[in-house]
Amino acid sequence: MNRNKLSLALAALLLTPAIGAVHAQSTSSSSSGTQDQNGTSVQNAKQMQTITVTGSALPRIDVETPSPVTVITAKQIARSGLTTLSDVVRAVSADNSGSVPNAFSNGFAAGSSGVALRGLTVNSTLVLIDGHRNANYPVSDDGQRSFVDLNTIPLAAVERIEVLKDGASSLYGADAIAGVVNIILRRSFQGVEATADVGTSQHGGGFTRKATFLAGGGDLEKDHYNAYLSVQYQKDNPIMASQRGFPYNTGDLSSLGGPGLGGAPGHAAGTDGAIRPNTAGSLWQPLHGCTTGPLITDPKNGSWCRYDAKNRYAQVQPAMEQGGIYSRFTVKLNDTTTAYLSASYNEAKTTTRGAPRSIQSSTPNNTNNIALPVGNPSNPFVVPALISYNFGDIPVGFNYDNHNARIVGDVSGQVGEWNYDAALVLNHEWLDSTQQGYISYAALMDAVAKGTYNFANPSANSAAIRSALAPGYNKTSTSDLDTLDLSANRELWDLPGGPMGLGIGAQIRHEAQNDPTLNPNFEFQGLGNAQTKGSREVSGIYAEVDMPLLDSLEVDASGRFDHYTDAGNNFSPKIGFKYKATDWLAFRGTYSKGFRAPSFAENGSSSTQGFVTHTPPPAFQTAHGNDAYVLPYSLSEYTLANKNIKPEKARSFTFGVVLQPTSWLNASVDYYNIKKTNNIVAADTSSALANYYAGLPQAPGVTVIPDLPDPDHPGALARPSEIIGSYLNANSLKTTGIDVDLQAHFEFANNWQYISELTGTQIFQWKETLADGSTQSYVGTQGPYNLSSGAGTPRSRASWSNTLVAGPLTVTGTLYYTSGYREIAADVGTLGLYNGDCLSTNPITGLNFPSSCSVGAFYDFDLTGSYAFNDHFSLTASVMNAFDRKPPFDPANYAGGGLNYNPTWSQAGLVGRFYNLGVKVKF
């Protein structure tokens, strides 16, 4: 067990939970150090116990492995001021493109939250609890990507979170291409601990209340058992756009040179409605006196009532309610054998509200030119009348109620020279979704024909009439994961640097997903559709060998073989090294191969219909006289599963330097390079649109369905209504970058401490190669725009935390930073579909909007503190976004309800300055 000063210094550093930032990154993790009152590790070499680090199957004394690992302790989480596991994990600087925020309430996977390390989307980051897999969210992101919902994992029982920022398929199998998030729960607890917190935004809305309770008893060494119970509850009120200032509370951006509300009645008619005789040259006129806004008159189009749907209905933050219970009973059977049984139930409810549905829709049935027949009570003309109308008397929204039930049984011990562990995991997740306010096509056509719905006087409509038009729909989606994990390890023989270690393991699991159709028989207008069903059996075996060849050189090799009943076989190898050049300088690196098995949405009995906001190209707009027909609209993308799809493959390598030039300064820099091949993608939307506008044939398997003709220019090319294709292995991508971690620790007299940490991730490259050999680069842009929330790929994310500990007082300030990006996206703009490829333009002038075609950087500062009056009572407080920093203007983002900001990176900006106050009691 020869360990030089660097190893001991690094171990002491990594076991110190005194860093206040949630981004706290370190080279490895530990559960073995004891801590004094101020959180400083007092562990030394003699006290060290062997532990297992995420990314390794072997217990070790030197906790620094060849792979970089981020550690976030419970103390760090408390000092951050963040209250949900979702916020904590997504604050890690390595989280990037494809991340799923709670504020994305109009996506397929609304009601959930997911992490995307290295920007490789949520389906390439594996989320574990105590080293074991979890059931995926029952609904796939974008109807395609499977992932674990972070909202169903409460914080109360979390001991620490380990984030492995390296490929790990050689031990964990599929989905670990970008890395692993391993949530470690408390092994035992004695005593009683309870917290209560309340918080509110300075600008209104978002009032939150949270309570936790933790109680346990029994000493494993003395009593041979421990049992504890953890309970958590949190409820957050919604924040409405109307509670925020311009330009985040309106759809009228005309004062900034953008689109206004008076562009056309089809986009501004509101509940008041507008109508016109179905004859050439006729003008629109309001159905009745305006109630949604002043009358707007345009010589070209006519008159209608001003209507700002975003101000009236859009949400900055949905209403959320989360709670859970976790219990664990551990028994020490003898000196070498320990067993535990844990059970948990967690629930996350999300309630979203939206703008009233319009009578005009392009999918699944085109009603853009719907006309009231002669004799309809709302039609004053002697000819059929085109109508523009929003059903403002029918509330619109979704309720998502996600449940997660999990049971784990585990036995670990020692037989001869072998240490073993056997675990059985049973995990079932079910999501109840309730939709309301979407208009039934059949009921709409019946109401128009019979005149049963009164458009001219909506107050005259009965509840029964409204219910017939929008009957609503309920469905329950399920996801299952049953796993048997077996592992063992032992020392083999001594090498010059220490004993050689061997770890082996096997896993058998059952996976299933059943997500019924979102829009049965395409009944509801303007609502996408997705349905997923599939199941499979997976078996895998793996091995790891750790070889300390010298006191200064360690080599680690591992590999895993997996068999999928629906995706075939795969072998994933990995090799890593760690070299200590001096007492203060070490080098580390890894090379690995990984894979991602197709999701059930990609190869099951599945299909997906989604919508993207599309603006026709300038030439098309000119051909249609720049009328309402060419304003931005929802384009349908319909994708079918492919049972012959192959798994995605990846190769990655890392290289890092770890330094400790002084006793108070530590630094690490790690470079990563990942290349994915066989990428599973849908039909190329940009190519399909370019071919359509150019009159060229489509690629095999791709179909573009045209919309109804423009009534004012019937001879011109109709705009595209829907693109149909299937998933295929077509593309490859490559991403490179670095992680930086600088930590400084200072200790002063009278038990004072000051700790400063700067951490960050810089992406050098994020480039995708398409099937035709062309490339698309996304780093520093808002691409890939068709991915998840269209959040883009910021080049840099970082945090800088400073913690002052003065006896019973602890104060932490953390500055978070996300770089700006160009408002372009190669997956939708490289073929000239937008003016200058800018995602946002003025629909009248065609000019970039904003003129810079860029989105600024976002940073915010959180200030938290706690004061321990005694060993039993402490007070906590925080001011989140203390400087009330506003989010950068982003009119192209579609995740935040079209409120002109990007909720994935700057949600804190629109929430605004937020105050929290709490108490904590311990016995």
Automatic annotation (TrEMBL):
Domain TonB-dependent receptor plug, chain residue ranges per copy: 64-180
Cited Pfam families: Plug (PF07715), TonB_dep_Rec_b-barrel (PF00593)
InterPro entries, sorted: Beta-barrel_TonB, Beta-barrel_TonB_sf, Plug_dom, Plug_dom_sf, TonB-dep_rcpt-like
Keyword Membrane: yes
Compositional bias ranges of the Low complexity kind: 25-41
GO cellular component: cell outer membrane
Subcellular location: Cell outer membrane
Family classification: Belongs to the TonB-dependent receptor family.
The protein's name in its UniProt record: Iron complex outermembrane recepter protein
Native source species: Rhodanobacter glycinis
